[in-house]
Amino acid sequence: MWPWDGPWPGTSGSGRRMKHNDRILRDKLTASRKRGGRRRQFVLVGQPNCGKSTIFNEVAGYRSLTSNFPGATVSYTESRVSVDGRPCNLIDLPGVYSLTSLDPASTETQRFLLEEPIDVLIHVIDSSILGRSLELSLQLMDLEIPMVICLNMMDEAERKGMLIDAERLSEILGIPVIPATASKGKGVQDLFRQALKASLRKPRARHIAGHRDVERVIERLSRRVEKAGRSDSRFSSHLVATKLLEKDPYFLDHYLDKHPRLAAEAKSLGAALEKEHGRPSDAVINSERHALSMSLAEEVTRVRKPAIHWKDRLDNILMHNFWGFVSLALILFLLFFSVFKTGNWVENALLARLSGFGEWLSRSMEPRSLGHSLVQGMADGVAGGIAIVLPYLLPFLLCLSLLEDAGYLPRAAFLMDGLMHRIGLHGTAVIPAVLGYGCSVPAVMSTRILGSTRDRFIASLAVTMIPCAARMTVIFGLVGYYVGGTAAFGIYMLNLLVITLTTGVLSRMLPESVPGMLLEIPAYQVPRWKVTCAKTWMRLKEFIVIAWPLLIAGSVILTLTDHFNWTGIFNGLARPVTWLLGLPAAAGTTLLFGVLRKELSLLMLQQALGSPLDSALSYGQMLVFTVFVVFYLPCVATIGVLYRQVGVKKTLLIVLYTFLIALVLGLLVRGALWFVR
Amino acid sequence: METGKISVPIKTLDQVRTDASMIVQEILGGWHMRQRLNQLGIHEGDVLIIKRCCAMRGPILVQVHGMDVALGRAVARHIRVRPQDEA
Predict the structure, then answer these.
(1) Residue B70 and residue A418: Cβ atoms within 8 Å?
(2) What is the predicted ipTM?
């Protein structure tokens, strides 16, 4: 129980009650326009699953951009929006639980909040977990940036029997608090209007003080921080003092080296706090904030009996120890079946139309001319992209967004974590892993659903090694057809074994800060079409911008090779590999160009060696070739999306590793076959 | 009152049966573990309701402050709890 009753004796400061004086506001806006000031920067910040992206997508246009923070693979989304006819820049930061640097996402978000110019912070809160959400609010208020709070998911809170008094909360905190249900589009307009007003009026949040003994220590350290000089930063001394006591790496890095005396003071005050409370100073500060938030939530919430909803009953099936797994298998099967069935149908229909273009091209241009080869190459690349994007990638990304927005993915992770963790993967990695058997491109793209960079890297590496449909044609068309089904099955088993070993070793080499799953399971939501479509479009754009041009360039190189008859040169280049693996030199071009278009590998092999293939290759060579093709380098489109997900260095590492492992396995298979004979 | 003789059974969270209501006694482990658990609303003194234990030694689903959090077994081993009714 909070020690003080009554109207918040701990509140102080210059917080003002928002009085709507539109005339003053209008004058300020006109003055600002006359000054020709820069575009206002609104920043959405909140905990994961608070509905922040729903709000973003509700107002952002189709031209919104996903960018990476400089030097990091953590991304944020940005869009130009118009609020009451005034242009603003809206930034959607990654969801963070607190303002502490724990992982790359929170480090980058914290850095952004502390260092970038921000006009208004729009802090989105999941009202149904108000107590926990306010912990972040208290930290954000310390930043002293104009802020508005959006009490999102009010419908969910009401379902849980919580009636929140937004006005009272606004009164206590000294900043505007706007109730909203973004999933139904309610309250979003009002939120942005209030944000616009806040950018002009700059309301200052009140300081909410905690227990006296803790406050005293923070105040003492704050004075030391002020003395040490904080001209190099724009954050409050209270924030710095709290963060130093919390042992936040960002603040430790920024202050302790430059100000050793401050470091000593922070250490001794932290030790005193630890001695007094019998636990580490960071735990004391966190507990203090937690208690404050809980009391605040209690103060503004009336509780009544919660209504039992279908959402509560659904988990009895979807997370059940038996039916949960059955449902998961069914959902994954339906996902695949619907995507591949419709994809196949659309692809055939599209390719039939596109082949008409090829015929037209042959008629209108000289067939053996350079121009024809160039146009043909480009057309092949465009057609290849269309054949991947429209039929498969689009429905898949749509389904993935639907599952994500409905809140199913964390549940799938919960079910699969026990199994996946044994091979060093996070439970959520089941989605990219299963997708990998279809196409590596969406599979790598879907690794973004994993929380940490480490998990994303391990899953991305695993996914690139999973034989996609293109590599499956080589396994079945070459080994399955000529050598036999058992050998094809054996390759799949070898692949599983190598992936398991790789992820197992890698997860031990890259230890987690917290060993194992720690995941919030959010309430189910009915996905909103507008938001789901916007999310799908943003992901699709990534393929169009990064992977598709690479695919087109690859196709052009292929047709040019054919035109200039460069086959001999490429066979020579790949000779060291083909010689090591005991393959005919003519297979070199196939291996090199398989990187550009893996789905053409078997076709190119037939062109290079002639059909039937068993007259040019022994069964042993077929096995070696297939094992090498299954593991070696991801295709260019995959390399493109890998670069977006894990960055340059890790992409290069994956490329190098897959090549080496393919070479080693190829040699092992060759050696084993020689030994057997 | 002989407070010194009262023995409250304290175990780690991974040893608790489903549907039990427990109070967090202590969070073992370092700064990262404490911070991550605190961020998800798990602090010393908080009440956890164990809702599910996943098959194949999978995670444990607990309810804390009205929200569900999945904790891997290794994480659960870092949380020492005591039964709420004996608190």
Answers:
(1) no
(2) 0.90
